[in-house]
Amino acid sequence: MTLLSAPATRRIGLLTSGGDCPGLNAVIRSAHIRATRAHGAELVGFRNGWRGILDEDLVAIDDRFVEGIGGRGGTVLGSSRTNPLEGGSTADVTAVLERHGIDGLIAVGGEGSLSAAKTLADGGVPIVGVPKTIDNDLGGTDYTFGFDTAVQIATDAMDRLLTTGESHGRCMVAEVMGRNAGWIALNSGIAVGAHGILVPEHPASLETIVGWVRSARDRGRGPLIVVAEGFGLPDGQLSVRGHEASGRPRLGGIGEALAPMIERATGVETRAATLGHIQRGGTPSAYDRVLASRFGSNAVDAVIEQKWGSMVSLRGTDIVTVPLAMALAGLKLVSTQRYERAAYCFG
Amino acid sequence: MTLLSAPATRRIGLLTSGGDCPGLNAVIRSAHIRATRAHGAELVGFRNGWRGILDEDLVAIDDRFVEGIGGRGGTVLGSSRTNPLEGGSTADVTAVLERHGIDGLIAVGGEGSLSAAKTLADGGVPIVGVPKTIDNDLGGTDYTFGFDTAVQIATDAMDRLLTTGESHGRCMVAEVMGRNAGWIALNSGIAVGAHGILVPEHPASLETIVGWVRSARDRGRGPLIVVAEGFGLPDGQLSVRGHEASGRPRLGGIGEALAPMIERATGVETRAATLGHIQRGGTPSAYDRVLASRFGSNAVDAVIEQKWGSMVSLRGTDIVTVPLAMALAGLKLVSTQRYERAAYCFG
Amino acid sequence: MTLLSAPATRRIGLLTSGGDCPGLNAVIRSAHIRATRAHGAELVGFRNGWRGILDEDLVAIDDRFVEGIGGRGGTVLGSSRTNPLEGGSTADVTAVLERHGIDGLIAVGGEGSLSAAKTLADGGVPIVGVPKTIDNDLGGTDYTFGFDTAVQIATDAMDRLLTTGESHGRCMVAEVMGRNAGWIALNSGIAVGAHGILVPEHPASLETIVGWVRSARDRGRGPLIVVAEGFGLPDGQLSVRGHEASGRPRLGGIGEALAPMIERATGVETRAATLGHIQRGGTPSAYDRVLASRFGSNAVDAVIEQKWGSMVSLRGTDIVTVPLAMALAGLKLVSTQRYERAAYCFG
Amino acid sequence: MTLLSAPATRRIGLLTSGGDCPGLNAVIRSAHIRATRAHGAELVGFRNGWRGILDEDLVAIDDRFVEGIGGRGGTVLGSSRTNPLEGGSTADVTAVLERHGIDGLIAVGGEGSLSAAKTLADGGVPIVGVPKTIDNDLGGTDYTFGFDTAVQIATDAMDRLLTTGESHGRCMVAEVMGRNAGWIALNSGIAVGAHGILVPEHPASLETIVGWVRSARDRGRGPLIVVAEGFGLPDGQLSVRGHEASGRPRLGGIGEALAPMIERATGVETRAATLGHIQRGGTPSAYDRVLASRFGSNAVDAVIEQKWGSMVSLRGTDIVTVPLAMALAGLKLVSTQRYERAAYCFG
Predict the structure, then answer these.
(1) D221 touches chain C (CB under 8 A)
(2) Which end of chain D is more exposed for a tag (fewer CB within 10 A), N or C?
């Protein structure tokens, strides 16, 4: 490997922003190792996302700092949902970076964070992005880290629900993450062999769902339906239950709303399980550790090559850089073809 | 090993009753192997708990039936909450056993089922019990299978919650099983190093809980509180939030009720996670597979020895038999000493 | 989805060949569901790979046959290393298929099996391939199922080795699968943060390895070296130890040969762990279940579309079909760039 | 809880000695919390076992030191196999403790370490022991931490081997830990449903083993034999293979010696898997974390109560203290009754 312009770039900043995601620490660790070993540069971390920029809250990253963190969940740098353009300005960010001698900034974050990064980059701030979304709904990259772990956790949990459902002839409704895109529901549903998969992108009536449940029960199975949190029944169907009327979405997501509807329509005892926060914490899967490590390592190269306004991205088996705009051009949704193959095959 | 009265006992029945529990299949498997290999006897299963008795719904159990089931969750015989003394009588049960040439019946179940088994045994039905409770609250035995698996699942889930809480400086409230006894909360709380453990047996005021959360936060931790589903705040404290008033306990257990109270009192962002049904299904832990296998094997011996009205029990490292009455003499609760050591140590 | 020529194709055969691989059962299950639900066709299985063709050993596959198998390791159809062109001929295979009314055959297998499939297809046999290799060294597809599971198992095992190594200041040498290609070593090594990665494709001298071990030890770590089973030291270095001279490769793979060499050269106590067969059995990861399910489903479509001589393949996020020849054009190896980035970053 | 003589005891030392064991960190953590929270005392650690005593290598333990360590494998204090009575004397140890104002010492270790602890205690050194053995062969306590984790790891690994064996009709021989006592083989063998269990305490001829393998194969299973590393065939049988003659026990344990013998005698293809070091590292099971936490907490109480020469012990569900001599009175072996029930039932 050729050392690229090491003399010109001495100091790289990094921050992790938005909801935590298994793999963030692997990004930090591998960025440090790449910066120091391959480029003779130094990595410094900003604490708690963009807030660390605004507060000038920095931490030096050395070998000891990253020891053994690659396999741990969360982010040792902390995170926040601070928007740098609300509490500050492009000039403020530039000033902070200059004051601390930082030649380039790696921003690891989701749609909001990358959108801010693009605005900053357009304004001349030397930024490179690393995409982060557990829901797998960011454009411009095949996958991001955290998603594989979330699918695995949901699959493990549903493997457990299946045996309970079977023992009692019960229907289980498992609610997984996915506000706008149903990738976690789709993949965990395929993996576990769910009898029905419900995603935000594709409508399904109560009658369809009831048909899935009856079909599984008639084959002697305890039916399992996986539903993304962002799924909604067609107009009118859910309001029958007064779900929306409750005004308390946290105390009764779509899974808990569907369960009694299914039970009433089919006569099959039905229980809901909301997987919630356990999907996003803890030890990342090996897949996510590898992907996050590659992102971190390549993001450092992008900084060295001064590819400002770009982000690292997985394309097939390669890590490439693409313009930040590609991540922001629209959510990556489950296509009709992908959904129908799964729903048709496993429903 | 001496073959005991094999000629006198040719056919042993077995049923699994009540909520499913990891390890039931290991009981079935090892009972079959012990019956056939050690005693030259035969094991038959009744489907769906006591309902299988009332409906005379039997299945022959052979080597193929038990192949590879030891590591699977649920029960291949199915289960139900049917009470044999509501749908039938002692005479009915006796008649069914006689009609099918069954010399002794192994009933695997919880408090309700063992209570029925005792009444039947008192009335002359040849029954031996195997205790089953995920909550670990049955008397007469050190532990039962399923509990270790539930504690492990809760621990794994909370390990994940901890990293999310830390990344965001958030407080997480994890609600685990335990209606009357807090054993799962106690042990998983100790295992994960929770900052507070709440169990049904021991009161804790909101002020105490808030103190735990503040103390953890002041040490720079994302606080984690584990609460058994049966825990309640002292009179008056919970009603402030209108929790009881909601009349919908399933859409908001104690964890979801506590979270906003903690957040308001401490200013620390707080989220609830209800582990629910994933605690009781799926692959049993090795510990539970061993305990369940020993229970099944020894229950067959108890039948051969005609120890009617007894149940198998773990005492230290030994499997013994005790009168069924011992399991019914009162719930096994977390003692003040055990609770205070854990709360004091880890709070 | 349009039903394609369902009347013309009524019966599809499937066989699994070569070493077992987590995900085979998910292929079988999803091929059955796609065949019956989407195409009105029927799936039959040949037992024990190509031997089932030669022996005309078929089994009907129905809903019950595939119930719950998606998450289980191994293959319910059995496997063998039989080569259909050694025990039989193209005409024999054609005759068997015709005799049983099979319109197309899905062959799931590795390089040997796909090579036979290509010869048969060239001879007019209606065959579609599904690539299978735990080592990830088949060309023509980004990934195959089984690889992700193996990397995860190796990562989990090495996470365990790391803590033992650290407690004792010991160096651990973990030998993983990979005869010709070092993908498992590369990815598990990145995931676990190994201090050195050794693959068959890239030479590394004992001096290099010793440097890695010393560097890790000097930073206070228990060094961890991961080595693919097919790695060899440069000429002369290994023979010093008489490794090759032993003539008993199974009682002392490369890991066990390296350990004492490292210990002698560094003075650091060194132990080898050979992961062996546990890398290929058991529950597949969610990733592998999804990929295998997609392969199975799409292979059925390829049969319906009569794409004889093709195989299903992962390209980015899409499943496509490619000529079988693409899988056979040469092993997919770890590139110098990929290796150096990992070795440089983590060594 | 009553604070016991806190003024008299201000400083407690702790060391971890011998092979590492999952749960050591939970002992350290809970000892610190108990000492500081319940007794107003202070815990200091000696690094690398008894060597830390001889070298006066101490580390202060505070809240930050124990943060999040309970779930990690290994020991943050390091370990060694140093014998304090070889490198030093009772007077030396006493002098070190006095020089650092340490009122009592907690020694966590196995047979060798507890034996040294007893000699020191007999000589007036204020010592309390915590038993540590993965093999579960120490007397005086029902169980020790680490054993449950090792059994779980072995069970998980053998679950994987079973599916590989079945797919190929192969016999798998899994070698697990257990030099003198076969507890890990016994319990993991029961848990996984092994077709034969071999332990050091009980002889089994090659003919017996071959009978197990044939019986399993005749029922259509891939036979699985679990063997403790300390098992040996009767005189004469193993030497046929020249196993002992090799003089290289590490390159061919009993599992690798048995595999070809079984294959030759049965004609069933047979493979060995040696689980090795992965059994002792990594995240402890919830069971072991709880037991280790209770041991650590109660060991501090024993120091406060000046129960010198005692060790903490699990009796049923209680933690008690017993004289150190009880741990040294003889190995805890698998009884004939326990072995025969398992071998007879599952063979």
Answers:
(1) no
(2) N
